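The methods section describes the discrete structure representation at length, but only in general terms. An entry of this sort, consisting of the sequence and the corresponding backbone structure tokens, reads as follows.
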Amino acid sequence: MLSRQALNRATLARQLLLERASLTPLAAVEHLVGMQAQVPHNPYTGLWSRLERFQPESLSALFESRAVVRVGVMRGTIHLVSADDCLLLRPLMQPVFEAQLQRHPEHGPALRDVELAPVVEFARAVLAEKPRSGTELRAIFAERFPGLDPAALAHACQMQLAFVQVPPRGLWGRSAQVRSTTAESWLGRPFVADPSIDSVVLRYLGAFGPASVADVTTWCRLTGMRSVIERLRPQLVSVRDERGRELLDLPEAPRPSEATRAPVRFLPEYDNILLSHDDRSRFVLPADRDVLGHVWTIGYGSVLVDGLVSAIWRLEPDALVVSHVPRLSKKALSSVAAEGRRLARFLEAESDAVRLVALRP
């Protein structure tokens, strides 16, 4: 049986959050099986908290050399992944995109009787010519397919083709309109012909475990994960959490003592460590969630204190503002402020001042 804190430490170790790792940014991104990246600069903060001497320009260089891309994969959301993982993961996740297309309240009905195959092939050729913005693609569709909803057609193509958002979008210190092309065109290689979901689930456990079947499903949003886990069971070990639920894990994966120190870590607005388990209690106490919930909205990152989300942060013009639960000690708050000042300097803020705000229960 693993306690909540033991589970916390096990996952933090695999997420490179117990101590900063000496990995390259590319190796870290692959170890983490991608990083949530719908906010373009989120992975920079995520890697800064995980890697020794991380230089943001090194990640920008990977974008420009096409060694990494921003593309929709797990849960149908934009992730930063390596080029190799893009070509492996995207075909595996296609059922998620098909379901999103069918469920869309506006575009789904507009496409009900539309033959999409010629639209998708037309879009593939148009995007191979050069990356296009959404506005450009809709205008092209309006001209080529009069009488059909161009926005719905563009959405359908985004769901059925692997749209890569190309630089300068996503580069450090840069902001640019979203322009997309297909992964095959951008990378000059085809998708993996017979991708293995089994190997991907093993990698998930190596980065997020120990985990339940429901956790794996939450991470990828694919169905049928129980049969995958049963197929992999001979390679796994079974443990239990405090409530007696079965969790699966890799035999040799790190499971540090629950007494292991967990330093303060600042996470970006979206970080997969908080999005990849059905049961998130290993990272957020219910009482803390209640306190943080009314202000934990879009635009806020989170702060791990002793491994738990105990504060949220946002960069304001005059300071990095940290809103925290009232139970934190003066020593913990001092550590939060010190790490916050380091983050502000990394983010090249105008000031490295940190303003601590205690939230009321």
About this structure: The two ends are 32 Å apart (CA to CA). The chain has a mean pLDDT of 96. DSSP finds 16 helices and 13 strands in the chain. Residues 264 and 319 are 18 Å apart (CA to CA).
